[in-house]
Amino acid sequence: MPEQNEGITLTEEQKKKRRGRSIAIAVVLAALVVLFYVVTIIKLGPGVINRTW
Amino acid sequence: MSLVERQEMMDQDVAVWNGGMGSVSDYVALLKPRVMSLVIFTAFVGLMLAPGSLHPVLGGVAILCIAIGAGASGALNMWYDADIDKVMSRTQKRPIPAGKITPDEALAFGVTLSIGSVVTLGLLVNWFAGAFLAFTIFFYVVVYTMWLKRSTPQNIVIGGAAGAFPPMIGWAAVTGGVSLESFALFLITFVWTPPHFWALALVKNGDYQAAKIPMLPVVAGEVSTRHHILAYSLLLAPVGVAPYFLGFAGPVYGVVSAVFGITFIALAADVWRKREGAEARGACMRLFKFSIFYLFMLFALLLGESLVAGV
Q1: How many contacts, defined by CB atoms under 8 Å, are there between A and B?
Q2: Those residues with Cβ within 8 angstroms of residue B2's Cβ, 6 or more apart along the chain or in another chain
Q3: Stretch B226-241: mean pLDDT, rounded?
Q4: DSSP per-residue letters across B234-260
Q5: Which of A47, B1, B171, B208 gives 20 to 30 Å between its CA and that of B39?
Q6: What pLDDT score does A43 carry?
Q7: What CA–CA distance (Å, rounded) separates B98 from B82?
Q8: Residue B212 CB contacts under 8 Å (≥ 6 apart), including other chains
């Protein structure tokens, strides 16, 4: 017998909520990328381009 | 098996899942934003009063991490306390008892944010502050929520330490350690917490009784709670003035904190005297509201004085 589909089917409401959460997570991740970039510049300053190798 | 029969079987097997119903605002509610705002404020004051300097961006990162760590504690607290939140009128509308977020989702959210905030604070600011934040989350979730809250009427006395740590973490973000001054900031919130909560507990006694939480009024009675409130208020007044005597607050703070401390005692004495009906209820609510104003003003004055001194 072929494998049954045991997946969960989301309702329209669940899909809508998931989309909202996904957007929020994307915004938070993008903000973290910017934050770590800025902090790296602050911590290393000009040293960021002075490599020793 | 015909195609039609197979389709019918599949339709029956489609699982219904009650998760995934939380909106972004429900997850924000899990972070207890009102408690978070107090944490942000006191941590900021600790950070500003600390000797030494921290780059403003790193200072912002420290406050953000402390705020997220506090929010994560709130989410884990709601995960563990969902059963009692369902019973109490004050907490029935929280996302888990309201059925918007499942306990598993709240647990995953809380753990992720806890680890994220601690690691970020450690990596970007310093590891002492990161470890202190981890300890605070542990203290609030494990020591207070899981252990003390349901087992002893002294729950909020010891558990209050978790709410009092943020200014010390803010201080540690700058200095990489603790000091007598940062301990004094801790002590203010620590001694303030019991009379603040017990004043509310006297009014909400029925709620705590229904939820079987051993709050002091439930276990020791309302008279004993009133004695405790007065005793803690007498202790709080001098603790509130301590920053002045320790030399890290100015005379304006010294005078205002003394006047506010005396007012606190007067309101606590009012709670102690009025023991029946609407009059007693009114006295409790007056003390509860003033206690919030008291704590806010003390920290605002410390901040204001440090800003003026820095100009």
Answers
A1: 48
A2: none
A3: 97
A4: HHHHHHHHHHHHTTSS-HHHHHHHHHH
A5: B208
A6: 86
A7: 10
A8: B84, B150
Q: How many whole angstroms separate alpha carbon B291 and alpha carbon B194?
A: 11
Q: Are B109 and B30 in contact (CB under 8 A)?
A: yes
Is the Cα torsion angle B149, B28, B297, B293 positive or negative in sign?
Answer: negative
List, in order, residues 6 or more apart from B234 with CB less than 8 Å away: B265, B268
Four-CA torsion A18, A23, A26, A30, nearest 10 degrees: -160
Instruction: Take residue B126 and report the two structure tokens written for it.
Output: 């310093």
Q: What is the CA radius of gyration of chain A?
A: 22
Please list the alpha-helical segments (H only) found in B139-276.
155-164, 166-175, 180-203, 205-210, 216-219, 222-245, 251-273
Tell if the CB–CB gap between B21 and A14 is shorter than 8 Å.
yes
Of B1-5, B110-114, B284-288, B291-295, the poorest mean pLDDT is in B1-5
The 8-class DSSP code of residue B139 comes to: I
| Mutual angle of helices B277-310 and B180-203, in 10-degree steps | 160
**Kind plus residue range of the DSSP H or E element containing B43:** helix B33-49
Q: Do B58 and A42 touch (CB under 8 A)?
A: yes
- Within a 10 A sphere around the Cβ of B307, how many other Cβ atoms? 10
- Of residues B213, B195, B159, the one with CA closest to residue B267: B195
Of A5, A17, A35, the CB nearest to B21: A17
- Rounded distance between C-alpha atoms, residue B280 and residue B297, angstroms: 26
Distance CA B224, CA B234 (A): 16
The CB density around residue B255, as the number of other CB atoms within 10 Å, is: 13
Helix, coil or strand: residue B150? coil
Which amino acid belongs to residue B72?
A
CA atoms within 13 A on the CB side of B8: 5
Q: What is the ipTM of this complex?
A: 0.81
Q: Which of B16, B20, B124 sits opposite A17 (nearest CB)?
A: B20
Cα–Cα distance for residue pair B92/B98, rounded to 1 Å: 7
**Per-residue pLDDT tens digits for A1-49:** 455 556 788 889 899 999 999 999 999 999 999 999 999 888 887 776 7
